[in-house]
Amino acid sequence: MLDHNLDFETARQMHTVLVLHFLEGMKQSEIAQRLNLSHSKVNRLIAQGRRLGMVRIDIETPYQRLMELEAALVQATSLSSAVITPTVSANAETNLQQVGKAAASVILENVRDGDVIAITGGKAVSATVDNLVADRSFDVTVVPLTGGVQGKFYTDVNNLASRLAERLGGRALMVHAPLFAESRAQCEMLKEMSSVREVFDLARAANLALTGIGSIEPSGSSYYDLNPVPEEDRKMMVGLGVSAEFMAHLILEGGSLANYELNSRLVAVAPSEISGCRTVIGVASGPHKVRPIQTVLNGKYLDSLILDEGTVNAVLTEMERSKNVA
């Protein structure tokens, strides 16, 4: 607030200095020379003008709408942060790559030497790894959150972990076990193997966790690339209220784990077990991910979420519709 006891001459001089510095972009030394003032006097006038509220800085960005969407998503959920990328194309792959690039930047902003990074498989995680270019090497360890699935490039979490570690200049540890065991007993046995247990223990306490968000609707799902499921079982899962795959686990619409046989055979860290991670980052893109994203948000599994503009608009619209119905 402006001090009314400030004498007119000092106020006029302060105003002149502030205009020259903030509006005309002059350096303090240039202002001192023009007004025949000492450099320290110019510095004091600027500092005093700030304290008196004479300086207001407005930042305009062409992406203001994205910032507003980020704030709206955080306000509507338990997230601590969100990053929204512009939807630049009708091509789903192009938008996915944009989201992956943003997620790669978030990883680089948050990673520290000595960190453990835990990751899942998935197309969005693969896009993140593809777009990560570090300016320096980081002393990090990258570990999988799940057992492995051979086949498509994005289902092989061990390969993704290795690629991410290579791009960061760190090392990767592998889980030498399948994602799905043949029985619950075999699953427990595999998870108790020292080589698997040690990796999963690191994953549970990771500094950063990077996860995809999967759909189980047949039209857009890559869950069935992990484990082939008969068509009648797919319909039954939807009928039971399963609406997302997260860390290879089937999740009910309210956010809890589904009591479904496949979940009991998963060689993987459970979603509830990553609550101790410093930051859990979710990444997703596409209209078929709207319901799964809501489901994962209902479970409060994430600290940060990275989406494209079209997807987040659909998520927020659906949240508002659900609120009005309730």
Verbal overview:
Residues 15-51 form the RNA polymerase sigma factor 70 region 4 type domain. Belongs to the SorC transcriptional regulatory family. GO terms for molecular function: carbohydrate binding; DNA binding; sigma factor activity. It is a single chain. The chain is of the alpha/beta class and 326 residues long. It has 2 domains: 8-51, Arc Repressor Mutant, subunit A, CATH 1.10.10; 64-325, Rossmann fold. Helices cover 47% and strands 12% of the residues. It has 14 helices and 9 strands. The protein has helices at 8-23, 28-35, 39-51, 64-76, 92-110, 123-130, 157-168, 184-192, 194-204, 223-226, 231-239, 261-264, 290-298, 309-325; strands spanning 81-85, 116-119, 141-144, 171-172, 208-212, 242-246, 249-252, 279-283, 304-308. A 7-stranded parallel sheet has the order 1-9-8-5-2-3-4, with helices on both faces. A two-stranded antiparallel sheet has the order 6-7. The longest helix is centred in the first third of the chain and has 19 residues, at 92-110.
Write the layout of secondary structure elements.
Layout: H1 8-23, H2 28-35, H3 39-51, H4 64-76, E1 81-85, H5 92-110, E2 116-119, H6 123-130, E3 141-144, H7 157-168, E4 171-172, H8 184-192, H9 194-204, E5 208-212, H10 223-226, H11 231-239, E6 242-246, E7 249-252, H12 261-264, E8 279-283, H13 290-298, E9 304-308, H14 309-325
Parallel strand pairs: 1-9, 2-3, 2-5, 3-4, 5-8, 8-9
Antiparallel strand pairs: 6-7
Helix pairs in contact: 1-3, 2-3, 4-14, 5-6, 6-7, 13-14
Domain Sugar-binding: 62-316
GO biological process, one term: DNA-templated transcription initiation
Family: Belongs to the SorC transcriptional regulatory family.
